[in-house]
């Protein structure tokens, strides 16, 4: 799934509240303005902990240039702050007050203002202020914006009441979510994206007198109060002030129950009156309003009772709270009934608009307001990569999702939301979660039981934060390592991908769905249907991507055997949802040419739902329908008719729901098709137990990131390590050896976890909890010295370990040719050369795909494909120091050169650096006897095949493989590589005798 980077300025600015108040005059009795910045040189260009102005941005080109410039037209003084910018991601500047001195007190003033030299470009400019926390970089951000739609100097005045808490990004997590003007740490300006230009600013100052209505506010403890019929709702009304000072003047709150769908006197006892908070009342004081509902014996849908609040002396709540009398007595609410009957009953009661809402999924940060959940009857929300609550903790997630679920209780039928997240290698958006190796590493383990256990750990951690739906696993069969999603694949062989689909049972439980309502299971998603791993290099039409979201050109036979095969297995395993691919499918000979998968009714309706019998629902990818041809109505019509049941429309959920209902009413989409889609969605919501338990069950939260969960990730990391070369038995290391460690990825948790970790693209550095490979080697008891660039002296060491590879990326951003290649960086190459030129060395490649290492293979004694091992570097150290044996096997072919790509097992021309399935072992005795032993193994394999003894068959083939690898050493030829790789495919398909025959052929090819 493609995900927006939530720090991107463009995405931020469109969500900000436009500023309308400019140039507001101060009253005659207002205090004199207090300067913040005059830009006459009194504040330096410096960053924390000093008092100063500094720039920032998404990459090296994004920070603006800043200077103090003398101008005759300066609004005050002689100088103004000027700058130039050309921002592609996000960028701006900040003034942070000195961190070693107390924060400033702005509470006496109405707001902040400054002069801005307008360019009349129509762009929004974000302005934010910082409060609370330890300093300017550890504070809360409060934001608003103004539009540059004027020319020349203009004074922009922003009342503090116009600032809102920033929900898309906070530097350190929530502090108190209250704008505390007594503890201010400065301000920041975010400049517009996509326009090259300059700016000028002058005279930042505090203005006006703070009046109580500006700094006092009335809130309720909730926006929605569900209550059983006959029960009483308790609405808590609280008054709070900026700076937590007592009230200067009285605050009154007149309340009245009126309107809504409930009938006064019949469904509830009307409530009206006035609450008074006298002058001197402490901030945070609370009063309670009771709303009593009345019971009868009739079955009813949910009914609403708005509690209108008229506030004097303070700011009123942002919305009117609603008491909701729960739906009751209707068949769909009866958990004793079969799911199909509950679905049929509920569906029969729903309006077209309510059905369309169930087919709509919005991004949680894309909601205009939380009230839209009920207004538009939304069926689903998601968190894209990096879309996290503040604070990003298990409690923060559960609280956020419960607040969304509460909103759904204000709808007629109280249909719960199904919340989805990309937990593709653990609960990877959650700080402190257990992060597993990416799928390519899981494929290298060749351990289906372990794959299932990793899925179970992920499901438990995800569900404990209130999330019932995971957009995983990716069942792509990766056929070209230039693809930026290569690491999301279990491997290049459909037989390997199928064998790893045990992860579905880890996520969902038993195939019949009976475990989905458990508090440690989630609905899984098979993605991306179909052929996303087979796109042709250079075929992408998405931005700068080279292969992702491109075209897969295959014969019908290739489509069935390679790309569709894993989905047949997934359906048999009871997969709950399926996500189509962004890519296009071109089936050679069908005369249609490339067609986007979201438009391929023949594949979604025909093959997936029809021939395979898939009974779950199909969810679109992120904004994927926007890539279809035609106008928006055509996008909606095409995707729905193709069989897509729910649309992921992160920011356009209103447009989608309206367009869908219009298309149905116009007869261009059938009501029967809508009913089918909604039935599929409701079926999974019932199976998940969401109607009975919509809120987070956090009883498993203490196991998130626990030692037991990390032990599973540690085992997965260990088993994923593939030993490609081990000349002279360099590995395993001994603890009494002096080991020199170097390389860019030895001590970088972010590089080790890769993309889709905390954010969509991932990031280098430490952003979650875990153990780097260097730290793990030290914990293992090794005598280790570390020099990242290998600049420290190398004399006196017994061995060297150089950990090199890639930095994080995701999807098409990581495509080769889009700023990436398969070569080690210059610094990594230099580190390898220095260490391996001085001592016996082992090189570990931490990457999402093979790296081209052939030109240095001769100087490297041991080579390990470490993939992206996740947070548990201890697993890597376990095999390095012999606590566990190396057992991993290549899940993809390791090429000699980029010109060989694509190269895969079974190719007619196959001459790789290391073949698919290659993987040396340690601590294991290799059989002796040569061809005589192979003949005996062939007989035993045939017997295992006849008797259906899979464990015996696998063990026999493994012995034959070790025999071949020992004889070959580093002398891997094309004659050996082809049959060797094919043997591993045959093993995975249960043809043990044929696999031994191929290995015998490979053995004979060794010269």
UniProtKB/TrEMBL annotation:
Catalytic activity: Hydrolysis of terminal, non-reducing beta-D-glucosyl residues with release of beta-D-glucose
Coiled-coil ranges (or none): none
Signal peptide span: 1-27
InterPro entries: CalX-like_sf, Calx_beta, CBM11, Cellulose_Degrad_GH3, Galactose-bd-like_sf, GH, Glyco_hydro_3_AS, Glyco_hydro_3_C
Gene3D superfamilies: 2.60.40.2030, Galactose-binding lectin, Glycoside hydrolase family 3 C-terminal domain, Glycoside hydrolase, family 3, N-terminal domain
EC number of the protein: 3.2.1.21
SMART domains, sorted: Calx_beta
PANTHER family (alphabetical): LYSOSOMAL BETA GLUCOSIDASE, PERIPLASMIC BETA-GLUCOSIDASE-RELATED
Family: Belongs to the glycosyl hydrolase 3 family.
Protein name: beta-glucosidase
């Amino acid at each position: 799934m493609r995900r927006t980077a939530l720090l991107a300025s463009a995405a931020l600015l469109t969500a900000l509240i436009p500023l309308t108040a400019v140039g507001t005059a101060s009253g005659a009795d207002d205090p004199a303005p207090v300067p913040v910045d005059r830009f006459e040189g009194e504040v330096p260009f410096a960053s924390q902990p000093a008092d100063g102005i500094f720039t920032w941005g998404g990459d090296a080109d994004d920070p603006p240039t800043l200077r103090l410039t003398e101008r005759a037209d300066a609004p005050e003084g002689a100088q103004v702050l000027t700058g130039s910018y050309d921002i592609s991601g996000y960028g701006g500047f900040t003034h942070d007050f000195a961190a070693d001195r107390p924060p400033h007190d702005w509470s006496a003033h109405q707001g902040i203002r400054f002069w801005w030299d307008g360019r009349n470009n129509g762009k929004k400019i974000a302005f934010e202020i910082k409060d609370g926390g330890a300093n300017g970089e550890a504070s809360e951000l409060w934001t608003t914006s103004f539009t540059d739609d004027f020319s020349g100097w203009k004074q922009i005045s922003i009342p503090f009441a116009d600032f809102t808490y920033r929900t898309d990004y906070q530097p350190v997590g929530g502090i108190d979510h209250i704008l505390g003007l007594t503890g201010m740490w400065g301000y920041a300006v975010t400049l517009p994206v996509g326009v090259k230009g300059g700016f000028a600013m002058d005279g930042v100052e505090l203005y006006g007198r703070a009046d109580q209505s500006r700094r006092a506010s009335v809130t309720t403890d909730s926006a929605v109060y569900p209550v059983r019929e006959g029960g009483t709702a308790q609405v808590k009304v609280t008054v709070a002030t900026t700076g937590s000072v007592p009230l200067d003047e009285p605050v009154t709150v007149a309340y009245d129950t009126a309107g809504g769908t409930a009938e006064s006197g019949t469904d509830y006892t009307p409530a009206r009156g006035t609450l008074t908070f006298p002058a001197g009342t402490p901030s945070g004081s609370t009063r309670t309003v009771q709303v009593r509902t009345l019971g009868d014996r009739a079955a009813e849908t949910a009914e609403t009772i708005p509690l209108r609040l008229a506030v004097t002396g303070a700011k009123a709540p942002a919305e009117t709270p609603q008491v909701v009398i729960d739906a009751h007595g209707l068949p769909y609410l009866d958990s004793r009934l079969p799911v199909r009957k509950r679905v049929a009953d509920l569906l029969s009661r729903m309006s077209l608009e309510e059905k369309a809402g169930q087919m709509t999924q919005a991004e949680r940060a894309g909601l205009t307001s939380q009230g839209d959940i009920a207004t538009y009857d939304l069926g689903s929300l998601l968190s894209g990569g990096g879309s996290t609550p503040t604070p990003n903790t298990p409690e923060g997630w559960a609280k956020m999702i419960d607040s969304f679920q509460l909103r759904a209780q204000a709808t007629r039928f109280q249909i719960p939301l199904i919340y989805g997240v990309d937990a593709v290698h653990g609960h990877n958006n959650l700080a402190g979660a257990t992060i597993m190796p990416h799928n390519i590493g899981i494929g290298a383990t060749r351990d289906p039981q372990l794959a299932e256990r990793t899925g179970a750990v992920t499901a438990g951690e995800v569900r404990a934060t209130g999330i019932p739906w995971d957009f995983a696993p990716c069942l792509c069969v990766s056929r070209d390592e230039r693809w930026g999603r290569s690491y999301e694949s279990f491997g290049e062989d459909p037989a390997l991908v199928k064998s790893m689909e045990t992860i579905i049972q880890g996520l969902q439980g038993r195939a019949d769905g009976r475990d989905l309502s458990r508090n440690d299971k989630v609905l899984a998603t098979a993605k991306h249907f179909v052929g996303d791993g087979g796109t042709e290099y250079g075929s992408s039409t998405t931005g700068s991507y080279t292969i992702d979201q491109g075209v897969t050109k295959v014969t019908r036979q290739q489509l069935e055997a390679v790309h569709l095969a894993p989905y047949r297995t997934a359906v048999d395993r009871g997969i709950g949802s399926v996500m189509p691919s962004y890519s296009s499918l071109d089936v050679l000979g069908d005369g249609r040419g490339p067609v986007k998968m979201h438009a391929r009714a023949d594949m979604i309706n025909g093959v997936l739902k029809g021939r395979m019998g898939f009974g779950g629902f199909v969810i679109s990818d992120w904004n994927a329908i926007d890539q279809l041809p035609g106008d928006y109505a055509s996008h909606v019509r095409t995707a729905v008719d193709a069989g897509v049941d729910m649309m992921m429309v992160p920011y356009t959920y209103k447009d989608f729901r309206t367009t869908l209902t219009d298309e149905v009413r116009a007869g261009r989409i059938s009501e029967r098709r809508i009913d089918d889609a909604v039935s599929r969605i409701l079926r999974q919501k019932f199976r998940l137990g969401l109607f009975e338990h919509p809120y987070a069950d956090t009883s498993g939260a203490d196991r998130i990131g626990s030692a037991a969960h990390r032990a599973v990730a540690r085992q997965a990391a260990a088993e994923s390590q593939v030993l490609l070369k081990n000349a002279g038995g360099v590995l395993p290391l001994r603890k009494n050896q002096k080991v020199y460690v170097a390389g860019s990825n030895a001590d970088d948790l972010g590089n080790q976890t890769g993309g889709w970790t905390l954010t969509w693209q991932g990031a280098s550095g430490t952003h979650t909890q875990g153990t780097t490979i260097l730290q793990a080697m030290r914990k293992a008891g090794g005598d280790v010295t570390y020099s990242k660039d290998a600049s420290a002296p190398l004399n006196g060491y017994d061995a060297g370990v150089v950990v090199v590879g890639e930095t994080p990326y995701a999807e098409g951003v990581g495509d080769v040719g889009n700023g990436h290649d398969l070569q080690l960086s210059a610094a990594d190459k230099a580190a390898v050369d220095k260490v391996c030129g001085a001592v016996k060395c082992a090189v570990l490649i931490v990457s999402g795909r093979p790296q081209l290492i052939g030109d240095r293979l001769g100087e490297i004694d041991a080579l390990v494909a470490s993939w992206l091992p996740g947070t548990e570097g201890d697993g890597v150290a376990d095999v390095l120091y012999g606590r566990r044996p190396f057992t991993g096997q290549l899940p993809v072919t390791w090429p000699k050169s980029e010109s060989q790509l694509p190269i895969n097992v079974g190719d007619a021309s196959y001459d790789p650096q290391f073949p698919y399935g290659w993987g040396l072992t340690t601590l294991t005795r290799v059989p002796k006897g040569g061809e005589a032993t192979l003949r005996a193994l062939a007989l035993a394999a045939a017997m295992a095949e006849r008797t259906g003894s899979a464990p015996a068959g696998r063990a026999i083939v493994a012995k034959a493989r070790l025999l071949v690898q020992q004889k070959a050493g580093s002398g891997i030829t094309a004659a050996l590589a082809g049959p060797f790789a094919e043997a591993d495919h045959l093993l995975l398909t249960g043809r043990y005798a044929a696999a031994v025959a191929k290995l015998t052929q490979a053995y004979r090819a060794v010269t």
